[in-house]
Design a protein that fits this description.
Blueprint lengths: L13 E5 L4 H9 L4 E4 L6 H8 L6 E5 L5 H11 L3 E5 L4 H4 L6 E6 L5 H8 L5 E5 L10 H10 L2 E3 L5 H10 L4 E5 L12 H10 L3
Parallel strand pairs: 1-2, 1-8, 2-3, 3-4, 4-5, 5-6, 6-7, 7-8
Helix pairs in contact: 7-8
Length: 205
């Protein structure tokens, strides 16, 4: 039986937290009202994943499968039964249509040809998760990102100044925020200050 720490909070926008690899992060994010929890399932033993999954309720699991072939993705979907898969710009797009599961595509503002990629991949995926190589990549790109978000379903996974977070959520066309989990200090112990400050800003009144 799933055990919920407390009644899940409500956030102002949809939130995905990537790179989760432990129960502490998973339970904390679920309790804070996060919509999607991302796991690199091809790197996680099935028994560990099942143990974490059994403690969760009210969240959707995203299998983060960047760099894998379509056959490898299918195997993960069959064995782990995630709710979503996340691929990157190297994915074999026609093969994605064979997979009956919602999809996100991780796209990089610094290295991908985004206008062409958005247009080509849009029929195959439900959301684009926009990430970057540098914390400075957002500077000067705000208007361009808004143009893309007005045309395509974009989740903004770039590093945002906290003072600009509410403005992006309330005044732009983005459909969600992407965050990244941290590491446990030791099993069962984790400092959530970094995630907490952002999620609390997104909490509804």
């Amino acid at each position: 039986m799933p055990i919920v720490l407390e009644e899940n909070m409500m956030l102002k926008t949809r939130v995905k937290v990537s790179s989760i690899d432990n129960l502490s992060d998973a339970r904390y994010c679920a309790g804070m009202g996060v919509d999607w929890l991302g796991f690199a399932l091809h790197e996680m033993p099935l028994n560990k994943y099942k143990e974490i999954r059994n403690w969760l309720s009210g969240v959707e699991i995203v299998a983060e499968l960047s760099g894998l072939s379509a056959d490898q993705m299918n195997e993960i979907v069959q064995n782990y039964a995630p709710d979503w898969i996340e691929v990157d710009s190297r994915a074999q797009l026609p093969r994605l249509l064979e997979m009956d599961i919602p999809k996100m595509m991780r796209v990089n503002i610094d290295s991908d040809n985004l206008p062409a990629l958005f247009a080509t991949a849009a029929p195959y995926v439900n959301y684009f998760l926009l990430v970057a190589d540098s914390p400075d990549s957002l500077q000067g790109m705000e208007a361009q990102i808004e143009t893309w978000a007005a045309q395509y379903p974009v989740i903004l996974g770039l590093e945002l100044p906290e003072e600009d977070l509410e403005e992006w959520v309330e005044q732009s066309s983005i459909q969600g925020i992407g965050l990244t989990a941290g590491q446990e200090d030791r099993p069962g112990f984790r400092d959530f200050t970094d995630l907490m400050s952002i999620l609390e800003k997104l909490e509804t009144e």
